[in-house]
């Protein structure tokens, strides 16, 4: 009998280590990148060149679309009337002449119109803050009866075209209910309608809702009245949104045209927009364009100075701490 060598059995191969599966929370927390171009493509040299080329072209195009009308207005005032009507129009003025700006300031009495506009815009700003901040604070923190219904009615006014309410508003200003006052040719004809703004009330209320109620309750326990809480706690915390409402109200009063045209027929009390329109028929075209440039400068400066406040206030919705 032949002895056969018994070969030992080969050990079974060890199972491959399993890759641990990420938990559901980890998968949800992982950033998901979706787009036409992957992040890996953007890290390559060709991807960077294409990306920056497209970005530069898009930014340049949009900048030209928004800036070119301003450039055309500023340079149009430097051209002569014959050069303005020339076809095809010239992109640059043949001779840079700043005389139309001086003529516009003197002949159109822009100084008087500018002071009137500053007075109307400043008064509208103060009354808007007093009325809208008080209304938003009451709807947000005091929680009056039928507060939601009142807010809904305020917001419903945003759906009404402004031209629809011009006649009722004019009749109201001409004969103020109960008191019977005629507010035409007075600053109150501009100030009072500007205070009733449902959009501002909504913005302020949403911001006031984000203020912790415990902070106000602690002040109430210390004996502070609702007016004291509003002045000492709510207003200092709400500076961003108050800045936004202030800027928007001033710009709206500055550029308004139809309403001042109706309620301020006296030439000595007209704002810039109405005064320039009334005297434009007897002015050369380049002088008129120069007057429009001068009237636009304050609003443009306000935007450039406070643009960061506008963006911060519109996106502010809560408090950290």
- DSSP strand tally: 0
Specify the number of helices.
Answer: 16
Major sheet attributes: none
N→C terminal distance:
92 Å
Output the structural class.
Answer: mainly alpha
Secondary-structure element order, N to C:
HHHHHHHHHHHHHHHH
What is the C-alpha radius of gyration, as a whole number of Å?
32 Å
Q: Can you offer a commentary on this structure?
A:
With 321 residues, this protein is mainly α. The chain folds into two domains: 37-98, no CATH class; 102-315, MetI-like (MetI-like fold, Orthogonal Bundle), CATH 1.10.3720. It has 16 helices and no strands. The protein is flat, with a radius of gyration of 32 Å. The N and C termini lie far apart (92 Å). Keywords: Cell membrane, Membrane, Transmembrane, Transmembrane helix, Transport. Residues 1-31 are annotated as: Disordered. Pfam families: BPD_transp_1.
């Amino acid at each position: 009998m032949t002895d056969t060598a018994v070969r030992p059995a080969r050990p079974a191969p060890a199972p491959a280590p399993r890759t641990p599966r990420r938990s559901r929370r980890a998968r949800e927390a992982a950033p998901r990148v979706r787009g036409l171009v992957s992040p890996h493509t953007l890290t390559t040299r060709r991807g960077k060149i294409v990306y920056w080329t497209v970005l530069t072209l898009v930014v340049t195009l949009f900048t030209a679309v928004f800036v070119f009308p301003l450039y055309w207005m500023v340079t149009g005032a430097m051209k002569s009337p014959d050069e303005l009507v020339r076809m095809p129009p010239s992109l640059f003025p043949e001779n840079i002449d700043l005389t139309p700006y001086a003529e516009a300031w003197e002949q159109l009495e822009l100084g008087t119109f500018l002071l009137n506009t500053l007075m109307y815009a400043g008064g509208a700003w103060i009354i808007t803050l007093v009325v809208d901040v008080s209304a938003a604070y009451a709807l947000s923190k005091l929680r009056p009866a039928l507060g939601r219904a009142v807010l809904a009615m305020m917001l419903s006014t945003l759906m009404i075209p402004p031209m629809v309410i011009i006649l009722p508003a004019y009749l109201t200003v001409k004969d103020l209910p109960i008191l019977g006052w005629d507010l035409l040719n007075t600053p109150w004809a501009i100030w009072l309608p500007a205070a009733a703004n449902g959009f501002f009330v909504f913005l302020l209320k949403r911001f006031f809702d984000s203020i912790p109620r415990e902070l106000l309750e602690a002040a109430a326990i210390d004996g502070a009245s609702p007016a004291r809480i509003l002045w000492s706690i709510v207003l200092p915390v709400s500076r961003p949104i108050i800045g936004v409402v202030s800027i928007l109200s001033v710009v709206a009063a500055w550029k308004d045209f139809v309403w001042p045209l109706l309620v301020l027929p006296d030439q000595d009390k007209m704002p810039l927009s109405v005064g320039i329109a009334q005297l434009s028929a007897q002015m050369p075209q380049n002088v008129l364009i120069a007057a429009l440039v001068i009237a636009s400068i304050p609003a443009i400066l306000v935007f450039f100075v406070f643009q960061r406040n506008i963006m911060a206030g519109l996106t502010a919705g809560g408090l950290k701490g």
